[in-house]
Amino acid sequence: MDKKQPVKDILGRTIAGAGSLLIVLLCYFFFLRIESIKEAIGWIWKVTEPFLVGAVLAYLLKGPCNWTEEFFTKLLPEKHKKKANVMSVAAVLLVTVFIIYGLVALVLPQVSESIITIVETVPAAVDNLTDWITNLQFGNDTIQKYVTQAIDSAYNYLDNWVETDLLPFISSLMGGITSTFGTIFNVLKDIIIGTIVAIYLLVGRRRFGKQALALLNAIFPPRYADMVLSEVKFTDNVFSGFLGGKILDSAIVGVITYIFCMILSITNGLQNALLIALIIGVTNIIPYFGPIIGAIPAALMILMDNRVNFFIFIAYIIVIQQIDGNILGPKILSQSVGISGFWVLFAIIFFSSLFGFVGFIIGVPVFAVIYDLIKRGVEKGLKKHGRQNLMEDIYAYDEAPAEEKQEEKTVKQK
Length: 414
What we know:
This protein is an all-alpha fold and 414 residues long. The protein is built from 14 helices and no strands.
């Protein structure tokens, strides 16, 4: 027994060392071939893009289809209950198309008109804003000098940007009409094929679910199959709760902003109310940075038109974000992603750098799933080594009131 123990220790260390070396080699190969890997991922994405679009669309419409099917099942007679699934998919798709068409028909003309108006009035608005800043009495010649230099530098930068960036971009855009039409055609093709794929997935969602469950249990033992199924359910709850909640939350913020802008338009002549509300509502989907990203261009648009409206709008943004962050958001996003603010910030920055705007939206729920997997692995490892108390201490500290944490910190400092 004693002789076998050193052999087991040596074998365990050898396996651990070989595993570590393998991980290092894989990381080296990954970074060495990063460009080839990116090209391979891009090719796979291009081929599967219509199916991915269909899968995302089906996932977003899965909840409404389930609710509608329950309604039709209760409404239809017994002999027609099997048709409830198909009828629910058709009804949800028709309502979705109608909503999209209505939004485009109502919003697009007004947004286009607002953009044209902004383009036409920008030069005069910039001149007025510049004159206002220049005429401000700062009470100090040195500050006045720096302000004047900053305005001149801004003008020089804009002139240089127009000549070196904007005009060449417009020339290339005008010369690339064929490629532009090709891009539009590819987008339409992906949307059409994706919609067809979504219809098949929605109609057969229960059959596909049972097939996936059977395949899972055929590959893994019951214990591991249940673990995978539990993680899939957790992932579904996180994504559906977070994305659905953020979309609803942003829609409410957008509507409230539009009502506020319309009131300000009637009382104080605010321009481009719909465009401003659209910017605030869409960017609010992005956690943390969304309100800032949306408020900056909207506030600048208002500043060029009316300085009083600018300060009123800034005050409104502060108030609505406090209401959204402390009341509206927590009420709607009742299913928390279960990670701290630091990890939310990390997820947004990391995934947005990899996937752009999509990373801003999916970064938090994706990282929440990864975080949950790591947490379960840590809990299992601690249990294996008989140190469950370490995890219990973390849970107890997270649930402790802030006063107790401060007292504990003070005692440690003493």
